[in-house]
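Q: Structure for this?
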Amino acid sequence: MITESPRVSFADFERATGWAIKPEGACRDGRCIPLPAGTRDPVDLRVVAGHLRMPLVHDEPSGLWALGPESGGRALTSAVAPDLELPDADGAPFRLSSLRGTKVLLVAWASW
Amino acid sequence: MWQALRTELRPRGLEIVTVGLDVNAEAARRVIASHPHDHPSLIDAAHVLDELLGIVNVPSGVWIDERGMIVRPPEPAFPARPSYADPSTLAKLPPRLAAMLEEARKIRIEPEAYVSALRDWVARGDASPFALPPDEVIERSRPRPAEEAAAAAHFELAQHLYRTGREPLAVAHFREAHRLHADNWTYKRQAWSLADPLQGPTELYEGDWLSEVQKLGAENYYPPLAMEGPAGLNAP
């Protein structure tokens, strides 16, 4: 997640990370991690990142922030395939979930 | 590369979706345009897929069943053995490129085992021993220690800065991603390729493809496939 400010809305945070911020804390996949009392919308990434074991990197010259994935476990926290949307070569969006009902072999490659 | 397999297996209920991990999306488009294909062929310039699934090298394949469940996490995936240039062709190439192709020839790949397992899954679905239960899919996915999570954040910043015209700022974050996640070939090769299409030595980055592969041993470039077949035997 790349942002220009260390404060992001709850909605943007959930959209980017899958974590919903509720009164009981940050919640995802049936578990909740308590956050400091008084956590408000917009949330300060400098506070919440540590609680979720997510790295937060700041690039001073550009002013940008990058919130990385959770650490301490594995890359996959669930076997549910992400509902990814990416453009095709013509720029048209394609959603992986459009293939529900079909087996899919997803192949990552590169021109390099 | 995958079209022949797609033609064979699409009528049997498998779609192949290729995703080009290319900060330089135009480079991916050129390759896509030069290979006639029917399957969805996507471009992931921000490398979202790497972080989501724990991909560290290409090509990597992931199997997803009809319900949208991953049944095999990322692993090396080849549809067939590539053909290699003969010595007379290599002799006409720039020396570095010829040396890289010679080294690439030594990389161990297992397309026969992979395709055999894929066909078995397409035919038998959940009954295939190659389709893994959710707990095993998670367990087999890449561990993510703090350094590698931080590397992902730096790489995300790097690709964003590069694609928004701030290459000098991007280089610092590419370098930090390399330092924090030293065995991530995707991070290294993507950065090298933006500085030099032949991924040779530059002043910007430590290492280059040829010397790093020679140091590692080409046979170790990909991990061996863990394709357990019936009775615990590997697929033929």
